[in-house]
Amino acid sequence: MLDALGDRTRRAILQRLREGPKPVVEIARGLPVTRPAVSQHLRVLKDAGLVIDRAEGNKRLYAVDPNGLLALRSFLETFWADALGRFTAAASAQPALRVPRRKRG
To answer: How much is the pTM?
Structure first.
């Protein structure tokens, strides 16, 4: 999944699909690549589990695969959980700092 997202065009395609299902022609509009190239990028995203497609009439509609995004999120959260665990351990190992109180008067 991370390899698939390493390409700027694929990230742009995924961003466009956030708005809802779209055919290749609409996805490709305004991108600096050809429609066949967009189709190849969509195949990579589909193989990575980030995009799904379905036939509608004589065209295919592509959409973000919520299950793929959930898997990606779970993978990334393991790094966040590990980092927070190390931070907590490091903070617990440090002696507590005392903040002097203000004198009243």
So the answer is: 0.74
Q: What length does the chain have?
A: 105
Q: Which of 13-22, 24-33, 36-45, 84-93 is predicted least confidently?
A: 84-93
Cα(9)–Cα(20) distance, integer angstroms: 18
Structural domains of the chain in order of their starting residue, each with its CATH number: 2-65 (1.10.10.10)
**Structural contact between residues 38 and 1, judged by C-beta atoms closer than 8 angstroms:** no
Please state, in angstroms and rounded to a whole number, the distance separating the CA atoms of residues 99 and 5: 47
Whether 20 and 42 have beta carbons less than 8 Å apart is answered as no
- CA dist., res. 34 & res. 69, Å (int): 26
DSSP 60-83: EEEEE-HHHHHHHHHHHHHHHHHH
Q: Nearest-CA neighbor of 31 among 43, 49, 15?
A: 15
